[in-house]
Amino acid sequence: xxxKIKKVLTSDLIKVFSFTGLSTLIKLITSYxxxxxxASVIGPAGVALxxxxxxxxxxxxxxxxxxxxxxxxxxxxEYKDDESxxxxxxxxxxxxxxxxxxxxxxFLIILSIYLSKWILFEEKYYYLFLFFGFxxxxxxxNNFFLSVLNGFKEFKVFVIISIFTNIVxxxxxxxxxxxxxxxGALIAVVTYQSIILFITLxxxxxxxxxxxxxxxxxxxxVIKKYLSFSLMALVTAMTVPVSQLLIRGYIIKEFSxxxxxxxxxxxxxxxxxxxxxxxxFSVYYLPKLAEIKDDRLLRQxxxxxxxxxxxxxxxxxxxxxxxxxxxxxILFTKEFYPMKELFLWQLIGDFFKILSWLLAFIMVxxxxxxxxxxxxxxxxxxxxxxxxYFINQKxxxxxxxxxxxxxxxxxxxMILIFKNKLFIIA
Length: 426
Fold this sequence. Notes:
85% helix; disordered N terminus
C-alpha cells in the first residue's frame, strides 16, 4: 500500500500538478482580485460585462493563433529527436501564427465600433477592440512559443512564464481598475497577455531550437496537418464562448443583466478550479497521449490519470459546495447571495466535464478531426437548446441544470466513442 502511494506521488502527473500549483495559485489570486474589484464597484452587471468581453477575446485568441497550438504541442513532441522534421514544423507553425494574427488583428481594428456595440452593447468601448487588434500578434506568438515548450516537456520554464503572466495580469488589473474602475478591468482583459511575449523571449534565448531560423518556405504537407488542428481549435473557439454569449444574452433578455451576473459568477468559480485541471492536462496529458502509439499503453495512461484525478476533483467540489456561503463572501459581495441555488447542478456538471475531458483529449492528440468537430458542435448546440428550455421552465437555475445534463450526456458519448480503447480484452 505504501509503495503504491509512493508510486502515485512520484508520478509525472503529480510532478506536473506540483509544478503548476504555484502558477495556478497566483492565477487564482489574480482572478479573485479581478472578480472582487469588479463585483464591488459595479456589481453583478459589471461581472456580466467583463464575461462578455472575455468570451470574445477567447474566440480571437484562438483565431489569432491559427488554432494550431495543440498541433504544435503534438508535432514537437513527436519530432523533438528528428531535427530535420522538427525544423519544418517550427518554421511553418511560426509563419501560420504570424499570418493568422495579422489578418485577425486587422479585422478587429476595422470593425471595432461594430464589435463594441454587439459585444458590450455600447459603441463607447470601441478602443478596447483597437487595443486587442494591435496586440494580437504579440499574444499569438507568445502562445506559439509556449506550445513549443510544452511539446518539449519543459515544464519548469513553462510554469515560470505562466507565473510571470499571472503577476503581470495582477498588476495590470490593480493599476487599471484603480485608475479607471470597470473600464480599467476591461482594458486589462485585452492587453496584459501581449506583454508576456518579451518575458518569454528572454526565457527562450538560450534554447537550442529557438536559435534556429524560424522563417522559411511553406511546406504543404505540414500546413495540411496543422490546418486539421486549426479546424478543431477554431470550432472550439466558435462553439464554447459563443454558446456562453448566447446563454448570457438570453438571460439578460428574459430576466436582467444582474441575473446574468449571477450566472457569470458561478461560471467564474468553475473557471478557477477548472484552470488547475486544464493547465496540468495541457502541459502533461496532451503530449503524453500524442507520443503513445500502443492502445494498451494508452489505456493504462487514461486509467492511471482517472485514479489520480477523480478523488481529488470529487473532494474539491464537495468542499466548494459545503462552503458555498464562504466562497461567495470571499470572491464576491452580498449582492451575489442569490447564486447559492446554482452551485449543486454546476458542480455536478463540472465533475462530469472533467471526466469527459480525459477522453476528449484523445481526439486532439490523435488528430481525430471529424469526430472532434462533430461532438463540439453537437454538444454546444445541445447546451444552448437545453439552456433555453430549462431557463424558460425553471428560471436562472435552469442554466446550470442544462449544463449538468449536457456534460452527463457528453461523458456517456465519450465512453461509447472510445470503448474499444478503454475495454481491451486481455
